Amino acid sequence: MPQAPQDKPRSGRLLLIPNTLDLGCLETEEGSQAPDLREVLPMGAIMAAAGLRHWIAENAKTTRAFLKRVGEITPLAAPMQEQQIQVLPRPPKGGHKRGGNAPTSEEARQIAELLAPALAGHDVGLISEAGLPGVADPGAAVVLAAHKAGVSVLPLSGPSSLVLALAASGLHGQSFAFVGYLPVESQERSQRIKELEQLSRKAHQTQLVIETPYRNPALWQALVQSLQGNTLLSVSVGLTLPQGWSRTDTVERWRKQALTLPDDIPAVFSWLAA
User: Fold this and answer.
1) Is the separation of the CB atoms in 68 and 36 below 8 Å?
2) Full-prediction pTM beyond 0.90?
3) CA 113, 117, 121: angle at the middle one, nearest 5?
4) Residue-range domains of the chain with CATH
5) Is 172:200 a contact under the CB 8 Å cutoff?
6) Residue 159 CA to its chain's centroid (Å)
7) In angstroms, rounded to a whole number, what is the distance separating the alpha carbons of residues 153 and 125?
8) How many Å apart are CA 52 and CA 146, to the nearest integer?
9) Closest CA to 249 of 165, 170, 167, 163
10) What DSSP letter does each residue of 105-138 carry, written as one string?
11) Core-most of 20, 75, 201, 221, by most CB within 10 Å?
């Protein structure tokens, strides 16, 4: 007798797990500990993370550090040594060209393979080193691949440095653009800043950028030198951290005061041209 066809295994979900903004644990002194996750993450997100065994991560080390903090609040579904952590493929050296973020064919193949546990019926967590995966962080290609494969995507609430900085800036929050990283070369960076200032003025749109922390001081100098004096410029440093702060003023006023930025803590810079 012919055998009845077997049902296709029900696919798991891709859970977008928020991380803190302290990069796992910013230790300021010997023996200091990371703050309790419940200070910045909803309990629902913590419980969802605790129930997972399969992960797609920007960084395996910081993911294990995150799970250790989760385990201090509620038991993990599997011991740390049994957690399956796959690391996102790194983009080619120099990154993709501006305006073209599509993965290469080899990256697309690797990304599709990361979803194998979900297609086998397991829930999979996507997590970045800090903040929300896929927002100013790697992971968007995995989310898109999940949609294409019919895997349900479930985003969970957590801190986003971009949204927090925008809210704290007092700048236009109904029209804004995250530009990402600016060119490193000084002349090209200055030109790009001026282009974005013109766009901000024309569209009445807030522009947001970030930088590798050790380049924060150089970017700050480029902004106050390249932007026009009546443009509003905001800087937010270490949001959700005890020493975090945010301030907005005109470029003209910024030029008249000294500002020392840390080179080891993330910052968000935003401006709105008059």
Assistant:
1) no
2) no
3) 135
4) 13-155 (3.40.1010.10), 161-272 (3.30.950.10)
5) no
6) 9
7) 10
8) 17
9) 170
10) HHHHHHHHHHTHHHHTT--EEEE-SSS-TTSSSS
11) 20
Torsion of CA 256, 258, 262, 268, to 10 degrees: -10
List of residues 6+ apart from 273 with CB closer than 8 A = 197, 198, 200, 201, 227, 228, 231, 232
Residue with tokens 């049994």: 82
Which 3-state string (H, E, C) describes 5-68?
CCCCCCCCEEEECCCCCCCCCCCCCCCCCCCCHHHCCCHHHHHHHHCCCEEEECCHHHHHHHHH
The model's pLDDT over 249-271, given as tens digits with 9 standing for 90+, comes to 999 999 999 899 988 889 999 99
CA distance 50 to 115: 19
Half-sphere exposure of 33 (CA within 13 A, CB side): 6
Phi, psi for residue 221 in degrees, rounded to 5: -60, -40
Short-list 248, 235, 237, 270, CA closest to 22: 237
Question: Parallel, antiparallel, or unpaired for β 124-127 and 267-272?
Answer: unpaired
Which tokens in the block code for residue 23? 């990069």
First-to-last alpha carbon distance for the chain, in angstroms, is 78
pLDDT digits (tens, 9 = 90+) for 13-61: 999 999 999 876 554 344 556 778 999 999 999 999 999 999 999 999 9
> Which residue has tokens 């790009």?
192
Report the distance separating Cα 37 and Cα 43, nearest Å: 9
Residue with tokens 């829930």: 123
Does residue 34 contact residue 22 with C-beta atoms inside 8 Å? yes
Q: Which residues of 147-186 are buried (b: 16+ CB within 10 A; e: fewer)?
A: eeeebebebbebbbbbbbbbebbebbeeebebbeebeeee
Kindly report, residue by residue over 145-181, the tens digit of the pLDDT.
999 999 999 999 999 999 999 999 999 999 999 999 9
